[in-house]
Amino acid sequence: MRSPDEEAQALGISREAVEVYRAADVIDLHVDTFIWTRIFGYDISKRHDAGPFPGWFARQVDVPRLRDVGVTGATWVITTNPFRSADGRAHAFTRNLDRLRADLARNPDVAVVRNAAEYRAARAEGKHGAFIGIQGGNALDRNADGSALDLIADDLVLRVTLVHLTSSQLGVTSSPLSTFGGGDGGLTTRGRDYVRALNARKIFVDLAHIHRKGFFDALEVHDRSQPVLVTHTGVSGVTPHWRNLDDAQLRAVADLGGTVGIMYEAGFVGESRLSSRLDAIVRHVKYAVDTVGEDHVSLGSDWDGMIVTPRDMTTCSEHPRIAQKMLDLGWSAERVHKVLGGNFLRVVEALRG
Question: Which domains does the chain have, with CATH numbers?
């Protein structure tokens, strides 16, 4: 790791920003790199460069670069292929979970963690704390009562995104694909039971990607004593978009004590993919903080999830620049620390200890 002065000079930021960043828990709510492992055999243990098109779709993350830049934790996500059968999705999930755990275990400076206490223990040992998530609840929806979730052993999965880019028998996506069999946009009866099953197992319900009606349907049946997550999104108050949350949705998450992760995809934060800047992400962060307070906003990059990142933060290696942008708003180090990871850690502790 570079010295603070070397890091500041290399990234064009202040030493203060480097020190604030390094003192924080820096936890990303949504890293999608495992997609590329499954498709192309991308090795998360190997250091990669940004490739011929930096920041475009892939090669944004690997364990060595995350460790170098001080990302102390992340939720590593297994994304569901919706075109398999229900049994096929369940079998694929169990295989992928075993593979992701094995890939992470090959890195001695990574620990798979299930809760805040395990994350803190990992960090005390100088390790990256790897939470595990599912994107697409239809990975485990073959039983109407949600009992397929029993395939998750030992509380390994922290959170499940109910729906992804296609609708399922749980509910309707927010994407334009909702027009194909989307009904009224709400959760199905099975989807409501699935929310209850996640609550019973203390697995976070992640409401990224879901249709607005389904979002509120889920909250109708959600255990009010448990926080909820939206792991990777923008906000409509800055950029109206099918992928983003409006103010009522932000407040609903905050009312349950949860947090919203702001993502890094240029188009969703209102920028051209050819000329996007980090300032756009921070505008979304600031709007969310101004709307629901500093305790309910986090970062959920969606790195390697087929996104295009800002031209001044193409990969995780430039990530400390986001601390500089928040300090430039006149924010305190305490507030910056909350957004970088403290809020997410608080929410995890509230659910799982």
Answer: 25-352 (3.20.20.140)
